[in-house]
Amino acid sequence: MTKCRTVSVSIKRHPDQVYEYLADPANFPRWSLFIREIRKERDQWIAQTPNGAVRIRFTPRNDFRVLDHDVTVSPALKIHVPMRVLPNSDDGSEVTFSVFRLPGMSARQFEDDIKMVLSDLASLKRYLEGESNS
Fold first, then answer.
1. Residue 31, helix vs strand vs coil
2. Which of 15, 56, 81, 133 is most exposed, with minimal Cβ within 10 Å?
3. Could you tell me the pTM of the whole model?
4. What are the b/e assignments for 4-23, b being 16+ CB within 10 Å?
5. What average pLDDT does the chain have?
């Protein structure tokens, strides 16, 4: 069984607003250090990351605020990333992101991945809470 840790961030914005923002992959480079650039190519997205180009296929828009995506690093490595926007009080949201420890990944590398995701979620929070259109 693969080790997994789910992390989250609370955002003072309505869940529908947070979901709409995150459901557009073009917004990812605004808050993610991992995705530096992204462009649509047919039914998937090509993202430039610190480790090179990856292909990302996002879950279609849905009423459940599920933002799961599959990241294809190479033909041999495809990573499923569970991500959700949950209601947190009347006008707040909780964004959850599950990080799996990949085969061959050291405990230190796994912790570094988690730190990067937490940093990205903190950046997302700052960005969305700082926007003037609430």
1. helix
2. 133
3. 0.92
4. eeeebbebebbbebbbebbb
5. 95
